[in-house]
Amino acid sequence: MKKYLSSFLLAAIMLAACSKTEEAGLSDGDAIVLRAGMPAAVATPRSRGVIDSGDKFTAAVAGWESQAAADYTAVPRWSTTADITAAATAQAVTLATEQVYNANSAVRTYMKAWYPQGTLAAAQVSFAGDAAYRGDGTDDVLLAAEVSGSKSDRDGKVLAFAHLTTQLQFKVVGERSLEAATNVTAITLKSVRVPSGIDLSADKLTGAAAADLAVPSFTPVEIPIKNEEGEATPASAGGAVMILPLTGNTMKVDVTTDKATYEDVTVTIDGDTDFQAGKAYEITLTFKQFGIELSATVAEWNSGTGSGTVE
């Protein structure tokens, strides 16, 4: 098994505050000011949905006020959006509507941010109807979990975005026994769920019903054949696909070529008892004349290794 690693490190949103006198036109309280940063990163193969350094996205940001723990099922005290550019150094982010901390120092503001924005009701974010949401396995769902502050506790607040999905990336390569000029025409994931929203109370994805899902952005790709030394550079097959993390360390895929169809091929991830959120598993399909061998590594969102074989 050959290990392919790519770094895809996630962003942090830094929350600071400046006084009312520094922010003209604001009401009682201290202004909430955001800064955003993302380390330089590379993720290959890229889906049109994968958010990387230099990309722009508009996140929803909401705040709940309480003197105790936040109740995310309640209507937030305020909600707005922020246009964010993923960058290696922290950059100022402007809220679409300026917000302030409560003038009472005993009242804390609890904040969360997420993308796609969707629609929020009783702690449930639904992506349906959001123009940024596609529902086809190309949605990179980001959540910055709870951070709280108050008028008297404004410094050092960090909202750290994390990926909530599992990402799968496919590559193909052929043994010398494989017929030359064989093309992979489709890969289908069996019984998986794509994200449909976020449960803010649990900081977890919600998803559509399980169904078969074609790997997106797929065009036929000729399988590279290994040379006499057993070497070849695997070719990318389709785009990155992002799904709800699976329970257990195996999944099934169907693979179609212009010569044959392989059904219910088992992919096994080593080292994890379950597929993990924030991990990009790179799965290499090695074709023989009468079967497929599989290997899987994990590209870094988070690191890990895995392997599997099907004859």
Short description:
The chain folds into two domains: 12-163; 166-309, Immunoglobulin-like (Sandwich), CATH 2.60.40.
**Cα end-to-end separation:** 16 Å
Supply Rg.
22 Å
Our estimate of the beta-strand percent is over 45%
Can you count the helices?
0
* Assembly of the depicted chains: single chain
Global structural class: mainly beta
Bulk shape: elongated
Major beta sheet, specifics?
8 strands, antiparallel
Low-confidence stretches: 1-27, 37-48, 303-311
- Work out the helicity level: under 10%
Largest sheet, spatial ordering of strands: 4-3-6-9-10-1-2-5
What order do the helices and strands follow?
A: EEEEEEEEEEEEEEEEEEEEEEE
The count of β-strands is 23
Characterization of the model:
The protein is mostly beta strands and 311 residues long. The chain has two domains: 12-163; 166-309, Immunoglobulin-like, CATH 2.60.40.2630. Helices cover 0% and strands 46% of the residues. It contains no helices and 23 strands. The strands form four sheets. Strands 4-3-6-9-10-1-2-5 form an eight-stranded antiparallel β-sheet, with no helix packed on it. Strands 11, 17, 18, 21, 22 and 23 form a six-stranded mixed β-sheet that branches. Strands 12, 15, 16, 19 and 20 form a five-stranded antiparallel β-sheet that branches. A hairpin with a 2-residue loop joins strand 7 (119-121) and strand 8. It is elongated and about 75 Å long. It starts with 11 loop residues before the first strand and ends with a strand.
